[in-house]
Amino acid sequence: MERRVAERLRGTLGPLGLEAHAFKVGWYNAVLQPGFHLPYPDDTLAFVVLSTPSMFDKALKPFVNKERLKIIRDPVDQCVSHHLSRVKEKFPDQRVDVMFDYEMLPSRKPKFLAQTAAHVAGAAYYYQRKDVKLDPWGKKKIFGVCIHPKYGGWFAIRGLLLFPDIQVPFLEQPAPEDCVSTEEKRIELLEQFNFHWQDGRYRDIIEVKERYSEEQKAYFATPPAERFRLLGLTQ
Questions:
Q1: Which DSSP letter does residue 35 get?
Q2: What is the CA radius of gyration of the chain?
Q3: Cβ neighbours, 10 Å, residue 155
Q4: 56-83 pLDDT, tens digit each
Q5: Strand, coil or helix: what is 216?
Q6: What residues contact 177, with CB distance under 8 A and at least 6 apart?
């Protein structure tokens, strides 16, 4: 069942520059405190959805051109929301729950922890402070970051698709590719991400096969309130 769902998702999301990676809810819940658990049985089938560098041209620009008058909030969020919501149409006989990376619970916690989901699904390796043996940061707060084996840091985690009626007890968990494998490189990655994230150097910590275009870099480097103008939209 998981394979059929995965193939249908690839056929739907792949042409938009989006990737879907399967996982079991139990894998995710097992590594988090109860306050962050997803409220589904452990064997429930879920997919984490990533946007790749090609999403900008394959999905965002066509969406903006078509829906120009209907865009009233962040165009990328609205584009992803549109396409993931349409996924439900491909599964008329299944319940599909969608969670987006920007959604919050009433407690102000995120609905899901995106980087943890990507890691347990084997989509991208979530490098954290605990992955460095000789910690050089003392009492500084150090945030972790996911690195994709193909795109490095040139990608984003956009949402979850959950299939509450599909249980996959025998799904095997893939390990994420440990592509930043040396201590020195991991320290460099976390340093760049935490203290120099604006210059984006952390994204190229490995040799990548594809990165954002100059147009896309300019878009994401622009303050959100001014991005409408770059896309020819009025806010």
A1: G
A2: 18
A3: 26
A4: 999 999 999 898 878 778 899 999 999 9
A5: helix
A6: 122, 125, 149
Q: Nearest to residue 152, comparing CAs of 183, 120, 188?
A: 188
Structure token digits, residue 196: 């120099």
pLDDT in tens, 29-59: 999 999 999 999 999 999 999 999 999 999 9
Encoded tokens for 49:
């959805």
Pair of tokens at residue 139:
């009492």
Q: Is the torsion defined by CA of 20, 51, 54, 145 positive or negative?
A: negative
Give the residue among 148, 151, 123 at the shortest CA–CA distance from 209: 151
Residue 125 pLDDT grade (very low, low, confident, very high; cuts 50, 70, 90): very high
103 vs 68 pLDDT, higher one: 103
Residue 20 sits at φ, ψ, to 5 deg, of -125, 125
Rounded CA-CA distance 196/189 in Å is: 10
